[in-house]
Amino acid sequence: MPAKIIDGNQLSRQLRGEVARRAAALTAEGRQPGLAVILVGDSQASQVYVRNKIKACEENGIYSVFEKYEASLSEAELLARVEALNHDPKIHGILVQLPLPAHIDANKVIEAIAAEKDVDGFHISNAGLLMTGQPLFRPCTPYGVMKMLESIDYPVRGAHAVVVGASNIVGKPQAMLLLQAGATVTICNSKTRDLGLHTRAADILVVATGKRNIVTADMVKPGAVVIDVGMNRDDAGKLCGDVDYAGASEVAGWITPVPGGVGPMTITMLLVNTLEAAERT
């Protein structure tokens, strides 16, 4: 029987309705949640991502500021702008869109963002809090994945979860959140020998490598939950994930599509993090 689809668009609409309600309540108290988004350079993909984030803010009662700079902006100028936003009481969340131009140290910029406004959850202090099970902010994509598992009422505690990809943005924090939820977690990466050996043992399989079809149907445990975080294009130029969707959906119990799966949830959890930052003030 084909896998059931975890619809990220539908779940996002539900969660955004709750965000809008809570944002309206804060605004009525004179504390409208505020997000500042900084884009440096002319990356078309980044511009699309930023546009979607700003639109989501506007539609759900979150005040937003969008600042776009030329790629020639100096590191010092960017750090000064971040520092100013750190002290702006109308701004509860700061997001600097990655990647940055090569002459700017992304780690330095991330560390310059006040930890209490780091709605991406990338600051080293927030990474440390996540590691110790006391997260202030959960990185948006892994947070969205956990909400998707929650939406299907999947028993994460005691399950074997395999995360393919070990980035600081998705793989590592995803593993930490699954551990906190009581799963037994295996993390795989590009150097993993016999990847299929591990993925076939997974009750929950999260794939975040940026490599199309790295996971095929024969690498999926029958009935498993397959969460595809990848965003690639196929030979026809259409969006696709890291998982061979057509094949895997015949084996898995649940699966996320690309597009329409994890992508919408990432932006939704950014709204949630911004809202929670405002509620803490």
CATH topology heading of the largest domain: Rossmann fold
Residue share in β-strands: 15-25%
- Which overall shape is indicated by the principal axes computed on the Cα atoms? globular
| Subunit arrangement of the protein | single chain
Number of helices: 10
**Which structural class matches the secondary elements?**
alpha/beta
Model description:
With 281 residues, the protein is an alpha/beta fold. The chain folds into 2 domains: 29-114, Leucine Dehydrogenase, chain A, domain 1 (Rossmann fold, 3-Layer(aba) Sandwich); 139-263, NAD(P)-binding Rossmann-like Domain (Rossmann fold). The protein has 10 helices and 11 strands. The protein has helices at 8-28, 44-59, 75-86, 106-112, 124-131, 140-151, 171-180, 195-199, 245-248, 262-280; strands spanning 4-5, 34-40, 63-69, 93-96, 160-164, 184-188, 204-207, 225-228, 232-233, 239-240, 254-255. The chain has a 6-stranded parallel β-sheet. It is globular.
